[in-house]
Amino acid sequence: MITLPADTLQDPSLSTSQKLDLIRRTVVDQLQTETDGARILAAVGIVLASWLVLRLLARAIRRHRSTSHWADLLSRWGLDGDEVRLFVRLARRVPLPHLPRLGFDAHCFDKSAHLLLRRLRDRTQRESQLFALLSLRHRLSFRIAAPTGTLDAGTKIHLERLGGKPGEGVFAQVVGTHARAVQLALLEPDPNVLIAEGARVRIRLRALGGESECRVKVLRRVSEVLPRLAIERPSKFIPTRPELRQSATRTPVRVELIERLPTRLNDDAAPVVEGVISRATTHGVFATIPRGRLKFGEAVRLVTDDVSATYVSYGDFSAARDAVEYFLLRGGPPYPVAKAAAAPTRAKARTAARA
């Protein structure tokens, strides 16, 4: 907005030409001042936009580097290509500060899995994606008692070629260990199994926590007469891919909401709702709860007549509004329910009183 000096223009000592010259100089000065302000604002906007673009570009580069590092690390550990691609999909949805610990922190992994499952609307796709995520979760060994193993002298392993049929391979025994290599003696040499130098093989090992595996490289053949191989020393054993088992059932259970406050102030017992287990799987159960909403990651206790176990809510698979079906991830081993002792009969009480 242009402002003219009213007092100066009303001065009778000024001529008309002087007043017009004064108006011209005032308008030019104010327009130049507004132009300079607009240029300053435009420069500040350009600087802020450039800073924002550079920040987004730096975040994208950091995410790409971390994702590539995780993909290479998981491939060296022995995960398959579809598992690595699934992990990359998870890495795209996790916050950038949590990405470095995605493969080590179970809570961070579960939160990213929840965000990935929530985008799928079809129940069949959600179930298949759920089982793939749980298999990957098992392979990353978040558990405390994860199967581990070492290749000491005398350890028996199963040797398989990568790309071959599942289960085909030979049994071998460790006869020598070195800093960077392990020497194997084939126990049952199969002439159809040709393991060349430089080939990538999978070794399976049964440990105390379960069966684990690792991918290594065949360095050389130690002896042509005796079936012996030298392989690189494994860096990490991971659990084998679990076999998915499902069984339909119709078991009524009591669902104890152990993370919620009691309904009454003078009561220490957790709220209890009735539910039905519709299907049992390798990793957990599908349970229908008529009343109540479970949050993702909320721990509950399922109690039957004989067994009680702790589970964690991992996904909502409801198809109706009145009854909500959840997948509950098994959080620990089941343990028997302590039953109250039966009340003594009148004859036993009379006998005990006489004694």
Description:
Helices cover 33% and strands 28% of the residues. It contains six helices and 14 strands. Strands 1-2-3-6-5-4 form a six-stranded antiparallel β-barrel. Strand 5 (210-223) and strand 6 (228-232) form a beta hairpin.
Rg (CA only): 35 Å
Total number of beta strands: 14
Structural class: alpha+beta
Name the overall outline.
Answer: flat
Instruction: Give the N-terminus to C-terminus distance in angstroms.
Output: 110 Å
The main sheet orders its strands as 1-2-3-6-5-4
User: How many helical elements?
Assistant: 6
Low-confidence stretches: 340-344
Q: Write the element-wise H/E pattern from the N-terminal end onward.
A: HHHHHEEEEEEEEEEEEEEH
**Helix share, percent:** 25-40%
Into how many domains do the coordinates divide? 3
User: What is the percentage of strand-forming residues?
Assistant: 25-35%
| Mean pLDDT across all amino acids | 77
Main pleated-sheet profile: 6 strands, antiparallel, barrel
Features:
about 350 residues, alpha+beta, Thrombin, subunit H, 6-stranded antiparallel β-barrel, 6-stranded antiparallel barrel, 6 helices, about 30% strand, flat
